[in-house]
């Protein structure tokens, strides 16, 4: 007869938090703060830092990742991971007012969607790159 299967992961409770947070990235609300014009310009025009990949010169603002060169960054813009992140950033982050409306204090408002495009090649973000979509019309924040 076959032997009983051994349970190797019985005593790994002290490691579970490390596994969950090993490759943790910025959350969507943190990236939303980074997408503001003044913060975006600082992130896209960083000083050379040799501890970061590519000297911190090739940064994806929406995914909060550094790349080794411009070619790797351009390839990243075509990936499913980047496109998924752009789709997730279309919805505005939750606010205190929205949580109060969900609790029954206030009236319902429809979900606001923004039009998010991949960052420009020259690394300069303009207010046109981040807009609000309402009923098919685009308006600026």
Task: Walk me through what this model shows.
This protein is an alpha+beta fold and 141 residues long. It has one domain. The protein contains 6 helices and 5 strands. The strands form 2 sheets. It has a 3-stranded antiparallel β-sheet with strand order 3-4-5, with no helix packed on it. Strand 1 and strand 2 form a beta hairpin. The longest helix is centred in the middle third of the chain and has 9 residues. The radius of gyration is 21 Å and the shape is flat.
Spell the H/E element sequence: HHHEEHHHEEE
Task: Supply the number of helical segments.
Answer: 6
Fraction of residues in β-strands:
5-15%
In the predicted model, the low-confidence regions spanning at least 5 consecutive residues are none
- Shape, principal axes of CA atoms: flat
Strand tally is 5
Question: Mind describing the biggest β-sheet?
Answer: 3 strands, antiparallel
Number of domains: 1
Give the N-terminus to C-terminus distance in angstroms. Answer: 69 Å
Broad structural category: alpha+beta
**Rg on CA atoms, Å:** 21 Å
Q: How confident overall, as mean pLDDT?
A: 81
Spatial arrangement of strands, main beta sheet: 3-4-5
Helix % is 25-40%
Topology:
Blueprint lengths: L15 H5 L7 H7 L2 H8 L14 E2 L4 E2 L3 H8 L2 H9 L7 H7 L10 E4 L13 E5 L2 E4 L1
Antiparallel strand pairs: 1-2, 3-4, 4-5
Please give a handful of descriptors for the protein shown:
141 residues; alpha+beta; three-stranded antiparallel beta sheet; 6 helices
Give a quick rundown of the structure.
The chain is an alpha+beta fold and 141 residues long.
């Amino acid at each position: 007869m076959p032997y009983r299967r051994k349970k190797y992961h019985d005593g790994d409770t002290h490691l579970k938090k490390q596994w969950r947070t090993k490759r943790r990235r910025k959350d969507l609300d943190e990236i939303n703060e980074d997408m503001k014009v003044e913060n975006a310009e600082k992130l896209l025009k960083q000083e050379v830092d040799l501890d970061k990949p590519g000297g911190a010169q090739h940064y994806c603002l929406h995914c909060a990742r550094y790349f080794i060169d411009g070619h790797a960054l351009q390839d990243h813009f075509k990936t499913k991971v980047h496109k998924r992140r752009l789709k997730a950033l279309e919805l505005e982050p939750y606010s205190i007012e929205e949580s109060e409306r969900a609790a029954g204090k206030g009236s319902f408002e429809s979900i606001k969607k923004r039009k998010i495009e991949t960052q420009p090649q020259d690394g300069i973000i303009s207010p046109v790159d981040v807009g609000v979509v309402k009923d098919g019309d685009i308006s600026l924040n």
